[in-house]
Design brief:
CATH class: Alpha Beta
Structural class: alpha+beta
Number of helices: 3
CATH superfamily: MM3350-like
Strand order of the largest sheet: 5-4-3-6-7-1-2-8
Shape: globular
Order of helices and strands: EEHEEEHEEEH
Radius of gyration: 17 Å
CATH topology: Structural Genomics Hypothetical 15.5 Kd Protein In mrcA-pckA Intergenic Region, Chain A
Helix content: 10-25%
Number of strands: 8
Length: about 170
């Protein structure tokens, strides 16, 4: 039995942008990186994946290039998705512009038995314009509701305690 992971990908630059991907659980992160570039029609670039916690905080880094540092980030080619993703809502951050800290946010929305008639990886849903790879100002943004804000909203509810004295 082969498993397929379904990921939803969002952007904080275009609030209407959504992509749903189905990929094999044993796909390497490097192949996933190449697949994402192809579907977005981006040119080859240095990029990193990060595992992320439930607050979208970056955890472990996986780079498209081997940095040659045994204590540093892990090369994408050495890791398959099934090693990182264990349950629904597990998250990855795909940093595609290292200099400007621009990223996409991926969340596992399901794991299924592969359809023998289907070809993987595949994009199964696409909404809105892709943010420009090099210039975020070229991205059209529709402020009429935000899928990204809806998903991230549950993590911004903490307002703090004004009575807190740090002395």
């Amino acid at each position: 039995m082969s498993m397929v992971f379904r990921f939803r990908m969002l952007s904080d630059e275009n609030d209407r942008f959504v992509r749903d991907y189905e990929v094999m659980y044993d796909m390497s992160l490097l192949d996933f990186h190449r697949f994402i570039l192809a579907t977005l029609e981006y040119e080859e670039c240095m990029a990193s994946f990060f595992t992320a916690d439930d607050r979208w905080e970056k955890l472990h880094e996986f780079t498209s290039e081997d940095m040659g540092d045994e204590n540093g980030p892990t090369p994408m080619e050495r890791v398959v998705l099934g090693q990182l993703i264990r349950r629904n809502r597990d998250r990855l951050i795909y940093l595609f512009d290292l200099f400007n800290d621009r990223a996409y946010y991926l969340e596992l929305t399901g794991a299924y038995e592969a359809d023998p008639a289907a070809s993987y990886p595949r994009e199964i849903y696409a909404q809105a314009e892709v943010p420009d790879q090099y210039d975020p100002s070229k991205t059209a943004v529709d402020d009429d509701g935000s899928i990204f804000d809806e998903m991230m909203d549950e993590f911004s509810d903490f307002e703090g305690d004004d009575n807190y004295d740090d002395e």
